Amino acid sequence: SSEVEPLVGSSSGDFFGTCSVNKLLIWKFPTKDFSPCEVRKIKLHHTKQLTVLAFHPNERIVAGGDITGRILIWRGFGKRTFSQNGSYRNKRVANVEEEEPGVRDNDDADSCSTWHWHPTEVKILSFSSDGAYLFS
C-alpha cells in the first residue's frame, strides 16, 4: 500500500488485518513454533474501496466498511489458507456461487453479505464483546 494503513487485531489474538484499497488483507498470528515460510495471508475482495475492518470476538467473521457506506460481512474466512493440517487447502466446489454466496475472486470465506448502508463512508466498526452486535 502506498499509504500506511492501521493494523487491526482480533480480540482472540489469532488474526490481524488491514484494508488495502478494495481488499481486506488478513494474516494469522504465528504460533511459537512457526517458521517464516509458514506465514500466509488471505485477501478478501470488494468492488469499492474498503475503509475499516473489525473481527468478531468469538467466530471466524470479519466485517469491512467501504467508502459508499456499505458494510460487508465475511463468514468462515481463512479455512483453506489457515488450516492446521492442510485439509481445507486447495478444496473448491465447482459451483462456488451456490456454495459460497457473495464470495468474490476465489476468496477464502464461506459467505459474504451486505448488512447495512450508511449515507457516507464507514469510518468505525466494532463488534460488541459477546459478538451479538456490530456498531458502526
UniProtKB/TrEMBL annotation:
Gene3D superfamilies: YVTN repeat-like/Quinoprotein amine dehydrogenase (2.130.10.10). This is Anaphase-promoting complex subunit 4 WD40 domain-containing protein. The lineage of its organism: Eukaryota, Viridiplantae, Streptophyta, Embryophyta, Tracheophyta.
